[in-house]
Design a protein that fits this description.
Number of domains: 2
Distance between the termini: 94 Å
Number of strands: 21
Radius of gyration: 31 Å
Oligomer: single chain
Shape: elongated
CATH topology of the largest domain: Beta-lactamase
Helix content: 25-40%
Largest sheet: 6 strands, antiparallel
Number of helices: 22
CATH superfamily of the largest domain: DD-peptidase/beta-lactamase superfamily
């Protein structure tokens, strides 16, 4: 009996399904066009989630009549996306089945399951959300559109709405974006390129890399061969259609001024951390809340603008990054004055010799070995030690200090004392402490030579800001981040950042390191003017060899900020001399002024917080010394710090010319010397030369290597 009922049951289900389809077909109406520009433009906000920072991609469209599009371009698009376009009813069951079968086989899906009509419906009437409901509505509307409009009307609408990457919507804008010509002038090969890019611009735009270029070559072959198989292109024209050159991708005009660098950094984080494609970002209607404070960002821009030298300052750049200790949130970032003019961030792209900003990592390593900051070392100058491979090493201005403890060596940035400390604890321990604090292990020049303590490696500004944030957070290292929250009304994205924090070193080590670094910003230190902040602060000045860049990096318990300046002339580092009326730019000059002005404004309204008290690691093994003292303050505060003593690093041997070059950035500093200090280090077998550090941005001419 049950067997006899099965056909009736199946028949009933079939009729029920047909009835459901009929009801759905009648219920789904063709909607008005969607608000493509507003619904799919990605917007970046400051940390309040309301104040707009930037729009990731501008909507760029110029509609044209179908008659303006060459026949071979139309046929290339059809060959790429829907070869049955002129015969199907708006949907293609065979196309859907083919797409599923290719996916199951793991084959490269050249032809998608959606028809041109379906794609047009999705882009013009619906949204990009990936739901079954939207897909069903898309198919029903496609059938109705195919019934109500001619194929040419559908194709014209499609060609004017489809996205080609590079912010270009529509075939006319794409023609200009890729080939800088009107669509009517496109060749067969150029038309095939644009038809190929439609499938997934982030996978086929050759400007995005070698992989995309290879992908494009393969897909253009698929398109042209398809045109031949359909009788739309003869063999001779197919043979003549060679891969054309596309023009370089122009920077989006929405990414201008200092904000452009922030927007680009946000994009990089979205692709790296959330694995979003460029198409997802450009078209996905993302709503991105960043960690960046509007007040702090405005303060960063104002501080750099105010204190950058105004005369004879061509090719001088500055980078600034502020990070919240213990969290990793980037509160402010200055990568340059105008992203349109220079697509190379002084904050995140440029790599910069650390100079004496590296010395605190040796302090951390020493304290981890139980060495007190009251431990004394010889601070005499010059220093000669054949066992260390050093023929001559000088302090700034060749000033000798005699026997001094590590707090004094830090306050006055004494090279000879720190070299002797590095020999005692080993350069490997110093390097490891730097990595533990937050410098990437692959930082340019981060080696184990005896002079690494003097800052022969070249981190980014953001790296130093983050490493110092680990000290300020009492040994807790956090991964820096810009993106706090991401949602989308168009695609399936709902992301909230969870800070990634680990213990890098102990609270006791951090407390004694902070205490030593407070001497730098106190009376008698190389950055005593930082005391004008009016709250507890600690930091370090730094200057690179030949004063080609200068730094000041410092922190309070609430905020860690690094600032660096450098000069780059066509990819070649040049000394910061005769700039802005000063013989030499000093670390306690413009960089410290930028830091101080920024910190005052960024922390305005926040209650001052004290650092932890010095613990005194290893004091029982070291003679107790009186704290650093200085002459009583005068009635009038100085306008410039006392001349710092030690930041210049010893001359390093030139790197082999066969080594690859990498982009460089700002560098550490100290006060202007009256005469150029000299120091010579003879490398031993364990001292590796540091690679060249050109600051040439990608795409600019490469200059001769810097010695």
């Amino acid at each position: 009996m049950w067997l006899r009922r099965i056909p009736w049951i199946l028949g009933g289900l079939f009729l029920f399904g047909l009835a459901g389809i009929a009801v759905a077909f009648a219920a789904v109406q063709i909607p008005g066009s969607n608000e493509l520009a507003d619904a799919q433009t990605t917007i970046i906000y400051f940390d309040d989630g309301k104040t707009e920072m930037a729009r990731m991609a501008e909507l760029n469209r110029e509609s044209v009549a179908l008659s303006q599009v060459p026949e071979h371009v139309k046929k290339a698009v059809i060959a790429a996306e829907d070869r049955d376009f002129y015969t199907n009813s708006g949907v293609s069951p065979s196309g859907i089945a083919r797409s599923i079968w290719q996916a199951l086989k793991g084959a490269d899906v050249q032809g998608g399951g959606s028809t041109i009509t379906q794609q047009y419906v999705k882009n013009y009437f619906l949204t990009q959300d990936r739901t079954v409901d939207r897909k069903l509505r898309e198919m029903i509307i496609a059938i109705k559109i195919d019934r109500d409009l001619s194929k040419d009307q559908i194709l014209e609408g499609y060609l004017n709405t489809i996205y080609f990457g590079r912010g270009a919507y529509g075939i006319q804008t794409a023609s200009k974006a890729y080939f800088n010509k009107d669509v009517s002038q496109l060749t067969v090969a150029e038309g095939a390129v644009l038809a190929s890019v439609i499938n997934a611009p982030s996978l086929f735009d050759p400007a995005l890399g070698a992989k995309q270029k290879t992908n494009l070559t393969n897909r253009v072959t698929y398109v042209l061969d398809g045109m031949v198989s359909q009788g739309w292109l003869n063999a001779a024209d197919r043979a003549a259609a060679v891969m054309p050159e596309t023009q370089a991708k122009a920077p989006s005009r929405t990414l201008s001024g200092p904000t452009g660098y922030l927007a680009v950094a946000v994009r990089k984080e979205l692709t790296a951390r959330l694995k979003l494609s460029n198409e997802d970002i450009d078209r996905g209607g993302l709503r991105i809340t960043t960690t960046v404070s509007k007040k702090a960002q405005d303060a960063a821009v104002a501080a750099v603008d105010k204190n950058m030298p105004k005369t004879k300052a061509e090719n001088v750049y500055a980078g600034l990054v502020a990070i919240r200790p213990g969290d990793g949130a980037v509160v402010a970032m200055y990568g340059g004055a105008d992203y349109q003019a220079r697509q190379f961030s002084a904050a995140t792209d440029a790599t910069i010799p650390a100079g004496s900003t590296f010395k605190p990592f040796a302090l951390i390593a020493a304290l981890q070995q139980g060495i007190s900051t009251h431990t004394t070392f010889d601070g005499s100058s010059p220093m000669k030690d054949a066992s260390l491979g050093i023929t001559r090493l000088e302090n700034y201005a060749n000033q000798s200090f005699g026997t001094i403890d590590l707090r004094k060596a830090t306050a006055s940035s004494i090279n000879t004392a720190y070299i002797r400390l590095n020999a005692k604890i080993t350069p490997t321990a110093t390097r490891d402490a730097a990595v533990a604090a937050g410098l990437p292990a692959d930082t340019l020049g981060l080696g184990t030579e005896i002079t690494n303590v003097l800052g022969t490696s070249s981190p980014h500004v953001i790296d130093v800001a983050n490493a110092y944030a680990s000290i300020a957070a009492e040994g807790r290292r956090a991964a820096p981040y810009l993106v706090k929250r991401v949602t989308s009304p168009a695609i399936d994205v709902d992301y909230t950042m969870a800070p990634q924090v680990v213990e890098a070193f102990s609270k006791d080590v951090a407390a004694d390191t902070i205490d030593a670094m407070e001497t730098v910003t106190s009376t008698g230190g190389t950055a005593s003017r930082a005391s004008g902040l009016g709250r507890p602060s600690a930091g370090k000045t730094g200057t690179s060899e030949d004063r080609k860049s200068v730094w000041f990096a410092g922190f309070t318990p609430q905020l860690s900020t690094a600032v660096a300046m450098f000069k780059d002339v066509n990819g070649v580092e040049e000394p910061l001399t005769n700039i802005g009326g000063a013989a030499e730019v000093a670390s306690n000059g413009p960089p410290l002024s930028m830091w101080l002005d920024f910190m005052k404004a960024a922390l305005d309204g926040e209650k001052p917080v004290d650092f932890p008290k010095r613990v005194g690691i290893g004091d029982d093994k070291a003679p107790t010394r009186a704290p650093i003292t200085a002459p009583p303050p005068s009635d009038q505060a100085p306008t410039q710090d006392p001349v710092p003593t030690q930041d210049p690093v010893p001359t390093r041997p030139p790197a082999p010319s066969t080594q690859p070059t990498r982009p460089t950035a700002p560098v550490p500093t100290t006060a202007p010397p009256t005469s150029k200090p000299t120091s010579t280090v003879t490398p031993s077998a364990t001292v590796a030369p540091v690679a060249n550090r050109p600051v040439t941005p990608p795409g600019q001419p490469t200059a001769a290597p810097v010695p």
